[in-house]
What does this fold into?
Amino acid sequence: MLQGVLTFILITICVASSFSKPGDYSLTEESRLYTKISDVELATAQGRFRLSEVYGQSPVMIAFIFTRCSGICSPFLLRLNENIKALSSKINFRVLVVSFDSADSLADMVALAQRYGLTANSQWLFATTRQINELNTSVGFHPVWDSTKRQYDHEALLVGVNENGYIVKKLTGIREPRDLLVMIKEINNDFVLSYPLPRKNMLFSCFTYNPATGEKKASLGLVVLLLPALITLLLLFWFSLKKQEANRAS
Amino acid sequence: MTTLSLKKITSAWIITILALFVLAIAFGITMRFNQGANINLDPAKFYSLLTTHGVTMIGIWAVAGMVAVNYLLARYVPVSTSLNVFAFILTVVGVVMLWVTTFIGHFHAAWTFLYPLPFYVAWEKWATPVFLLGLGVLGIGWFVWAVGMMLQILKKYSLRHTFAWQHLTTKHDVAVETPPFILITTVSLIGIIVCLLAAVVLLVLFFAEYFSSGSFVNDPLLMKNLTYFFGHTLANESLYLGLATLYELMPEVSGRPKFKTTWYVALGWNCTMVFVLTAFFHHLYMDFVQPVGFQMIGQLASYFASLPAAAVTAFSVMVLVFKNPIKWSLTNILFFLGVVGWLIGGVGALIDSTVSNNIFLHNTLWVPAHFHTYNAMGNVLFSLAFFNWAANEFVGNQNETKSYSLKIVLLLIGGFGFVLMFYFAGAYSVPRRYSVYPQEFTSAALLASAGAWFACIYLVVILWMFFDIVKKCFKVFSPSY
Ligand code: HEM
It folds into this structure.
């Protein structure tokens, strides 16, 4: 009896695991960083060229969408467009919108550009590619087709590629202009500042910082930094005083 | 007075330090061959070697300076052999703990163990606390020993005389002259005490966070300041201990009158004491949250710390050897070449500590280039000179008859060839601390291979000296001694 139950459990586990999908659907922004993006061929309204010809001219942000998307793609593109306008950054970069749906044609992409009023904007490029699987793999993007909804289950992914074709930053989801600015700096090989802010459980910070006013004030940590020199000085003076007293007594 | 027990413990130190040195060089050569793609180490293994090499080298050459000044200090004041033995035992225990963490626990956060890296455990979990504890054990041993020496000096000399302030006034209090050895030893011991206290504070903060399970976190800026306050200062003070030995022994073995403390020697070393404690700020140039004022202190103190001591020593050594009949021996040649190496490395350091250059040289191989120059071809030579002198002293024969020219030629080719490959790579923007170089750095691997071969030549000379010196050191343990 027990043997039968165990065999049943074992068979169930084996069968269930062989039917389960591979667990590679991850939203991490770190995968494939600092690796080269696949140099696929793109079809655009301006003609056919390779991705390396785009990033070779200026760093590029690549947004992955598909035109029949009834979910995140529209708000994603809308906010991306608004944020880039709001930043009005003078830094050099382009935005490449690529469809990851092989059912999308170049005409669909051109229509999409028109809908966002970006046809004449030379900073933006709308493209399809026949090598979409290769491109997806190289950036670590894994959309999953849901045949019931007839939609792709996917995240809003923006990939930052520098002039040498390396993926240097990835952003998932709809993000604030601040995050975009970091990506723009990263793809231009600019230094991006980052430091944890002083917090409540950080007793000995060197400075306190008021994010509202940007004001910095010296704090307890600086005293800690002075402590070794102070203790040594005290030790020296204490010992020489003791010696003087001993000399006087003798 | 030099007692037999002092000779024995000094011999034990010399043998241990040289043995560790040979092993640490072997680790260095292995790393350089890996960077040269001649061998293929697992990256974690490379970083374990880097950690072991860095911590061992910094440790042994700091303590070698203390061994030398402790031995020579016995000429002026009584020194405690028990404290010396205490420091020796704790050093051996500390080194074993550190090596166990890197070789068995695979700890590889580098000798600087910069916060919060040790908490991102990519090795055995126990390795982080044991590594920190190992450093604590070393620190306690050396701290107690340094304080002991300092107190012995202060028992004989007043505070004013210890710092040679009487030499700064026009009205000379000639009744008491502070020997340069006492002045430089004092300045260096104070620096050592300060930086070891900084290490204690740093370790306490590390452990506070480690055991607080999140209720206490450290400020990375404070931790980085403390790390370099400790690390940079310790590395610098080791050199100054070597210089104290040079001031004491070089004229003696050259058959020249002893160095005297003049006003400029007193002034130079007093300035050095203050500035060396603030020069570490130059390690934080890239830390934009550090106020600009501190960065300026870092740059100015880097100039002011090195110039007085370097200028005074270079001048004194030139006066000693220029147009004077010198009795050259391996000991004073090593001292002389050590000063040359120290000055070349010092210029490399000054170039790097200048903000406008640092933008390009920061974290490139220029950094190991300059510190290997003033260590491997500077401080190490000062200590080797002392070891050679002490070994001869132990066997009662300072008149070496063996020719040393081949040793010196090989040492120069091996040592300077090795560091030159670092300089070339640094000027070519090759980053430091890379296990293997990306293809873009086309000549980096070639330079690394060449550097490794030069280092092999350096190792041959060190092994040669090792056998000569150790043979003599063992004699003090013989019952018939
Ligand atoms: C010929 C002998 C030596 C060889 C072959 C050697 C080799 C190396 C190599 C390959 C590195 C790594 C460089 C990098 O890519 O960043 C290194 C780092 C280092 N070496 Fe040496 N070295 C030697 C002597 C010394 C000496 C005498 C010292 C004395 C203090 C020393 C202290 C250090 C330190 C502190 C580091 C930095 C470790 C780190 O970045 O964490 N080395 N050495």
Notes: The longest strand of chain A covers residues 60-65.
